[in-house]
Amino acid sequence: MLFRFFLLVCLYGLLDAVLFEHNEPLPIIMFFLPFETDPTTATIQLDVGAGATTFTPAYTDTNAYDLLNSFVYWANTTTALTFTFTTARHVTTGGVVFTLNADATYTVDFSAMATTLLGLPDSAGAATTVGTAPAINSIYPLTPTEVSLFHPVDTTTGDCSGAGAVREQLPATAAEKPLVTLYLNHLEASRLAFALVASVSPRLCTVYQQHTDTYKSVHVGNINRSKEAHRQYSYELEVLA
């Protein structure tokens, strides 16, 4: 009898985990808000040994992550090298510092605007370029933040799917609106306030979700702030994903 009870408890716990998995808060550790600057002015010149070519961002590259990600994709499809980038927390500002890596040496020349937006300096004859400043409108909280109620539309076949009815991840078609919660100290809170003032509307942001190693795009709406402790604040951001 005791064994049956134990088995039922285990099965109930497993069922609970399966049914409510997507409602549990999921940790995210980076947050990128859009900038007002025209991204097409942030050009980057790259030379991998076959002559310099110039990358011009698209109008849709409206935050630092999107801009650098587009450059890396362009570099990987137009040169023989493989480029990647990594991130780290900028200790004195709470922002995100980028490092650009390749599998061989290269020369890169960032325009003044690209350096301002990405925090990356010019580099010659190296395989790694380390950022000297945080990317604009970026936040790397000491405390992992959360995104909950993130319900992408199921487009697989089946009676309960959205196949043929709605597009995947289309705002306003999800069952519930996602919620992003930020836990910030006074340094990060002031950085968020500055970024919100400097960002454009609609505020299409990018958040990094740690446990899946993926970046998600969300539109930020209303923001509610609560004081948790001395110099510690929580922010609840209503978003559309």
Structural notes for this entry:
The protein has 241 residues and is of the alpha+beta class. It folds into 2 domains: 24-33 and 138-240, no CATH class; 39-130, no CATH class. Helices cover 22% and strands 37% of the residues. The protein contains 4 helices and 12 strands. The chain has helices at residues 2-19, 64-78, 112-118, 186-198, and strands at residues 26-32, 44-47, 53-55, 83-89, 96-110, 123-130, 138-139, 145-148, 179-185, 203-209, 214-229, 232-240. The strands form 2 sheets. The protein has a 6-stranded antiparallel β-barrel with strand order 1-8-9-12-11-10. A hairpin with a 4-residue loop joins strand 10 and strand 11 (214-229). The model is unreliable at 1-28 and 161-172 (pLDDT under 50).
